[in-house]
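Structure ticket #2291
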Amino acid sequence: MTGVNEIRSAFLDYFAQNGHEIVASSPLVPRNDPTLMFTNAGMVQFKNVFTGQEQRGYKRATTSQKCVRAGGKHNDLDNVGYTARHHTFFEML
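Resolution: structure written out below.
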């Protein structure tokens, strides 16, 4: 069975080989964003880029973002413990 480290590396390596900048996971508690208690998606660290408030030195990025979902639109709390695939912490590729 392929492990999580191999899957993560294969994902990041594929995009790096195709011109994407590998960006480190941002913190689980977002800095300077009072609208979120936790990082709940891979795009959170790019929010200011999407809104035009920030520019970065690359046009393409890939990341393995640590996320917590404990409520809201994509809430998995009700299914945690009942299925083998529902968790509150995960890495979004």
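Closing remark: Residues 3 and 16 are 20 Å apart (CA to CA).
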